[in-house]
Design goal:
The chain is built from 13 helices and three strands, in the order ααααααααααβααββα. It has 466 residues and is mainly alpha-helical. Helix 3 runs parallel beside helix 5. The N and C termini lie far apart (108 Å).
């Protein structure tokens, strides 16, 4: 009997120790799950403000150690935010598609268009009408390009009326559209085949500003942008699907873990009650025993039942630990995959944003970058009461360089001049290519009276470079 009592004590001690290990394991796993959600939300930051807010709330609740049952609705809310984001992207692209389609149909009504242009237009309209999601960074370019496209059509209609008195006005409009389209092309930073196509269009605009050439250039640029948007859309859609799958997987894993854990807890509670009842019965039966043999028989029977219950309890605790470990391993695997996807996606976004703010030819900031910097400097000057000067510079006789030596020589000239101007400025100054051979410069904390010497230095440096 003494050996059985010793065995029971060991079983009880093992049960207490196993329970303590289970609690420690649960606390550790909850901490790792909290880290998983935190790293996941930070990896996805910047895609959408609403999604950022929901993931931040989820991150805060995990940091506070909130129960999983209370966190589950936040996970579901984040999943819904992902669905809303995808729906909004589809709606925004649909608006741009309608604008391009209207412009294309207007062109189809015009007479005298080349057969190839009509075929290209039909192909373009077919592509535009295909359902797809969006990359918002390209939508302003598409809208602007469509406006230029419609302006070119209106100019063509006027030219067909045969009014020779408007020839000068017609040429001026063509030149203006060509300049605006060239500036737009400088903001489109594509690589590979798309980049080569954009460069060919730019060279065409430098040598030919006829309405037919403008229409063809606009059409080809639209095709390039749509093709690039489609490529980028597929990449963004793939990432959003991965993110959605990861959050759904976390949600399902948490729900499954909670359900199974609750079932195990109920069984554990029943076992604890059963063990307590068995110990109570053992005590009562021991007191009522009338002989040593009867006492030994009672104790042996009761201790056997208690030992069996303790083993069953130990197995339940082991099952719960394995469940938590399997859930954790699954979430860690999903996290590793998603982190890799997020790193690649954020890298592409960073590269794309950098290229979108850089002039491809001179490697100076472009007009879009200037607009951002100008707004920043204006606010800073107004806030601190500091002066801000701005200067516009262009290259004299640049057209003669293109005409006499070719556009390749003109491009090299612009590159050399751009670098020379950049090296002549202070670190606090800002220079951008504004369009064609024009450069625009910001001089923070500089009065107009202080500009004469810096501008003369720039002019002399530019003359030496040429």
């Amino acid at each position: 009997m003494a050996e059985q009592q010793s065995d029971v004590k060991k079983q009880l001690a093992n049960a207490v120790k196993a329970r303590k290990q289970l609690e420690d394991t649960y606390e550790s796993q909850f901490k790792i799950l909290s880290q998983f959600v935190s790293r996941l939300s930070l990896a996805c930051k910047g895609i959408d403000i609403e999604l950022d807010n929901k993931l931040a709330r989820l991150r805060q609740e995990f940091a506070k150690g909130t129960d999983l049952e209370k966190i589950l609705p936040l996970v579901e809310s984040a999943v819904e935010a992902l669905k809303t984001l995808e729906s909004r992207q589809q709606s925004e692209l649909k608006k741009a598609q309608n604008t391009i389609t209207d412009a294309g149909k207007l062109l189809q009504k015009q007479r005298g268009l080349p057969d190839q242009l009509r075929r290209d237009l039909r192909d373009l309209l077919t592509k535009v009408e295909e359902p797809s999601s969006t990359v918002q960074a390209f939508l302003p370019h598409l809208t602007h390009l469509t406006e230029l496209y419609q302006a070119a059509l209106a100019t063509k209609q006027q030219s067909e009326q045969g009014d020779t008195a408007d020839d000068n006005k017609y040429q001026a409009i063509c030149r203006q559209i060509s300049i605006e389209l060239t500036n737009l092309l400088s903001e489109l930073a594509f690589e590979g085949k798309y980049g080569q196509d954009i460069e060919r269009i730019r060279l065409t605009l430098l040598s030919d500003v006829s309405i037919e050439s403008l229409l063809e250039s606009c059409l080809r640029t639209i095709e390039i942008i749509i093709a690039s948007v489609t490529d980028e859309r597929q990449s963004a859609q793939h990432f959003l699907l991965k993110l959605n799958e990861a959050l759904t997987g976390v949600q399902q894993a948490v729900v499954s873990s909670l359900n199974t854990s609750n079932n195990i807890k109920e069984k554990m509670l029943l076992l604890n009650q059963q063990i307590e009842q068995q110990i109570t019965n053992l005590t009562a039966d021991t007191k009522s025993a009338t002989s040593l043999e009867q006492l030994q028989s009672l104790v042996s029977t009761k201790l056997g039942a208690i030992t069996s219950s303790l083993r069953e309890k130990e197995q339940l605790e082991k099952d719960e630990r394995e469940l938590m470990l399997n859930t954790l391993r699954h979430m860690e695997s999903r996290l590793a995959e998603l982190e890799q996807e997020a790193m690649q996606f954020k890298k592409r976004l960073a590269e794309q944003k950098f290229r979108s703010l850089q002039d491809a030819l001179t490697e100076l900031p472009n007009r879009a970058a200037f607009d951002e910097r100008f707004e920043l400097e204006i606010r800073r000057a107004q806030r601190y009461g500091k002066p801000l000067a701005i200067a516009l510079a262009d290259v004299d006789h640049f057209k003669q360089i293109n005409d006499n030596y070719g556009h390749s020589a003109g491009d090299k000239t612009l590159k050399v001049i751009a670098q020379a101007l950049k090296q002549s400025l202070r670190e606090t100054d800002f220079i951008a290519r504004y369009g064609g051979e024009e450069f625009i410069i910001l001089f923070p904390e500089t009065h107009l009276s202080e500009l004469k010497q810096p501008l003369n230095n720039l002019r002399e440096r530019k003359s030496v470079s040429r």
